[in-house]
Amino acid sequence: MKSSPQKIVCIGAGYVGGPTMSVIADRCPEIEVTVVDLNAERIAAWNSDQLPVYEPGLDAVVRRARGRNLFFIGQAEGAKKLAEADLVFISVNTPTKTEGEGAGKASDLRYVESCAQFISDHARGHTIVVEKSTMPVRAADTIKRILGLNPHGGTFDVLSNPEFLAEGTAIRDLESPDRVLIGGERPEPVEVLAAVYRQWVPAERIITTGLWSAELAKLAANAFLAQRVSSINALSALCEVTGAQVDEVAKVVGSDSRIGPKFLKASVGFGGSCFKKDILSLVYLCEFHGVPEAAVYWQQVIDLNEWQKRRFADKIIRDLGAKRGKVAVLGLAFKKDTNDFRESAALDICRQLLAAGLKVATYDPQVEFADFCQVAGISQGIRSAGSINDALTDASAVAVLTEWEEFRTIDWSSMSLGLGACIYDGRNILDQYAIRRAGLRFHAIGGWAAN
Ligand code: NAD
Ligand code: UGA
């Protein structure tokens, strides 16, 4: 086994594979990094000026490394690259299963399994295979079994190196991570991967564990983060009926150094491609391994989140009553600074508003409206506004669902909203006094807004 890899291949050029490999290539110019994807359109976009992923800072990183030691290629060319690779990352999607055993909860490993098969078919010599995708604990057993079938007498080590980046801050998170986690069964391959990260990550931030702990720790970290959001959102409902204000409560709770201030921002509900699917995976693992009490505990984090989205839309529908009218939805992305709307609160809330017979005008600076409607399964009664102003004109209600900076600075007094319109702040980012001065009504998640 080589002590430092010369050639890395990553299978999967998505939100994780693309940015992660770009940073590795940028920081390790002596390593050739090739990213392979079966989606030809995505590969073409990675090779263009219009990258398929919107992330602050990503363009500059890609521009520095692409064509030098960073390459994005299709599946057919990928087979050749696999034969030369020392390290192969699997960074494909691991969605929730929709059929078969565990449907609705367990992770669907079919894409991971097809990667393992692809590697098994083409790898030569010794290859370190790295799980970058989020996997259920003991997924490496499945990968090892498939790799064992390889026809060329190749040998393999499997490592778990889950990714902790958050969208919108991916480049910052990759360049200066809180920690890098590497789980393995033998010290040698773990050291090979650790040496790559040590080129820019301080050694004390690289945590090494057993394979199974690494796989489970990733699910656990996401579950803890989501649990904090559900905890503060549960309190937000109580704040609204008691006159307490959730940001004030969060500040007090978070100033305890044992608790800390992060991830205590009440919202219209967490979204994103991973929190829900990873907690469902954890729930399934608890059930499968005979600990149903733990499964019920984690399931509640999701149930509370679904309720939070529902009760926000319910309030708008109830307040509008027979008046009906148009709702302006500001923000379709699941958080600011990303074009990703997977599992975003906007999907459920738009569906619910439309089902109640309301008209919806949306505005988001990054999300593709047509893609959003297709995923949401909606087409009638909803339109994309070209600007905030356009969305707000004649609206009876405004629902702020994403915390984009440009929503904070809306000049409410210059907007032509409908008479008696109400602004529903699903992120607690708006200035309630400016809104009220403009003659508008105001409602914020968790009571009056603090700023
Ligand atoms: P994604 O859907 O954006 O990208 C996955 C890519 O893999 C797609 O482009 C798809 O075409 C490709 N792919 C699937 N099967 C393939 C195959 N057999 N061969 C070649 N390409 C194949 O997914 P993502 O958001 O990048 O997430 C990937 C993994 O990383 C998931 O397990 C996710 O849980 C985890 N993760 C995601 C984030 C995030 O912020 N999105 C953060 C941490 C971890
Ligand atoms: C999350 C984790 O933060 C990453 O560490 C992890 O790698 C990633 O999931 C993953 O595995 O995919 P991400 O989903 O990109 O990252 O974004 P977050 O910043 O965690 O936000 C998730 C959701 O929670 C967003 O909808 C956000 O608006 C919401 N949120 C977050 C709140 O409502 N309140 C908060 O205080 C924080």
Topology:
Elements: E1 7-11, H1 17-27, E2 32-37, H2 40-46, H3 58-65, E3 70-74, H4 75-84, E4 87-90, H5 110-122, E5 126-131, H6 139-147, E6 155-160, H7 170-175, E7 180-183, H8 187-197, E8 206-209, H9 211-242, H10 246-254, H11 275-288, H12 292-320, E9 326-330, H13 345-355, E10 359-363, H14 369-376, E11 382-384, H15 388-392, E12 397-400, H16 405-408, E13 422-425, H17 432-437, E14 441-444
Parallel strand pairs: 1-2, 1-4, 2-3, 4-5, 5-6, 7-8, 9-10, 9-12, 10-11, 12-13, 13-14
Helix pairs in contact: 1-3, 4-5, 5-6, 9-11, 9-12, 11-12, 12-13, 13-14
In short:
The protein is built from 17 helices and 14 strands.
Structure annotation, total helices:
17
Average of the residue pLDDT scores: 96
Q: What distance separates the N and C termini?
A: 57 Å
Question: Which segments are poorly predicted (pLDDT under 50) over 5 or more consecutive residues?
Answer: none
Percentage of residues assigned to helices: 40-55%
Shape: globular
Main β-sheet, in a few words? 6 strands, parallel
Strand content: 5-15%
Structural class: alpha/beta
The number of E-state strands comes to 14
Task: Name the quaternary structure.
Answer: single chain
Ions, cofactors, ligands: which are bound? nicotinamide-adenine-dinucleotide, uridine-5'-diphosphate-glucuronic acid
Across the major sheet, the strand order is 3-2-1-4-5-6
Rg from alpha-carbon coordinates: 23 Å
